[in-house]
Amino acid sequence: MLEIKCPYCGKRSQNEFSYGGDANVKRPALGKEVSDKEWDNFVYLRKNPRGNHSELWHHVAGCRKWFKVSRDTLTHEIYNTEKLNEEF
Amino acid sequence: MQKYSIFSLIKNAFSNHENWEVAWKDPKPKKEYDVVIVGGGGHGLATAYYLAKEHKITNVAILEKGWIGGGNVGRNTTILRSNYMWDANGLFYEYGMKLWENLSQELNYNVMYSPRGIINLAHSDAQLNVYSRRGNSMRLNGIDAVMLSRDELKKMIPFADFSSSSRFPIFGGLMQPRGGTARHDAVAWGYARQADSMGVDIIQHCEVTGFDIRDGKIQGVQTSRGNIKTKKIGLCVAGSTSLLAEKLNIKLPIESHVLQACVSEPVKPFLDHVVTFGAGHFYCSQSDKGEMVMGGDLDGYNSYAQRGNLPTLQHVLSEGVAMFPNLSRLKMLRTWGGIMDMSMDGSPIIDKTHIEGVYLNCGWCYGGFKATPVSGWTFAHTIAQDRVHELNSKFRLDRFNTGHLIDEKGVGTKTWIG
User: Fold this and answer.
1) What's the rounded Cα separation, in Å, for the pair B284 and B87?
2) CATH architecture of the domain with residue range A1-23+52-88
3) A36 neighbourhood in chain B, CB within 8 Å
């Protein structure tokens, strides 16, 4: 069982959360010409590290806020959770 | 190579089974090979076997970080099927079914292929419609498919929940009679034994640490047991594909996720088929030892740990109990996890890469085991001929650029939802 510390509500069991994947995917800027390659990168390519992974989680059965988690994909240890900053 | 038969069994019984030949050797890596296969799982071993058998390329090494058959080929739920709707999948997996049917004879190794039939249960009229569409598509591709009514199913799987209080009543089902199971370990060992007998070097405990690339061509690999020269290299390392691809500067539309499976304590014969639940994601069959073999959803977050967590198992088994209420009385014997290459459209990639001599076999999602023979067969062709075979011509890496996805499940790029 993962215990995830929601930055708004505190530590809760993994049952309350849903996963949102790689937190560093950036949508190409609006109003700008986007090449097929850029779009392909945005839609399909993800970081897939063995070790520290920066990812999104949603406290779906709680405060319903999204936040960022830094977690080890080999040991499942959670190093840090933080609120999404403004530019995100 | 010693042939396995009833006579060799009797003969060896007289010497207390102490004089059997080793099934495969334990060679030291040579300086150079024509082809190096990275990954000694089912797909890697099958690839080496078909390289030797179909293409007469026998100067081949399989480099395995751990021991052969220790990864996903030993961690699956042993199901074989080709009940796909899209042509690309249907024709590919159906070719695989034909290889399965003769595999024990071909390998002289009993893989215990058991065509007991795979039944997908439908729990609404709408779902029955979808299944008939899929069944019709399958039959158009020459794949066996039969629609089953509720009454027929009552006779075939009497322990399923046919009560009036059922939350997801069974309306009917789609069955592929030739689908079934095979003994997973035997598949790896059978391929290993035959590949070894044709001259393939199976090198275990040998981790690939880097690649030697010059002028856009592969020259060799660096390993924990020294450098090996080669002009062609095939990656069959599902679960760890992204890590090796990164060393080659190839970015892939793949995430690694953990998938759990489990077996119960053994019980008397109870279920004659492979059955999947249509109102969730759960499937089960009964092994020859009597254990119920069960599986379902991914744990749902990126993972390289070959173990999962209990909430997912609880979720999956609650679906199992909804389907077969008497499963709730069984004790669990073992659970385990394997790392899946989850591709962004749910279909595999068997292709060349932009580096000359580097070939990719990855992205198998949940379905790698049943594809073992056909994956090896097409990948061997791709490596030997330096071009894709018609069967894997749709499983190319550039489909994500061109938009020709094979999204059989239609779940989009949230791989953990599928």
Assistant:
1) 26
2) 2-Layer Sandwich (3.30)
3) 401
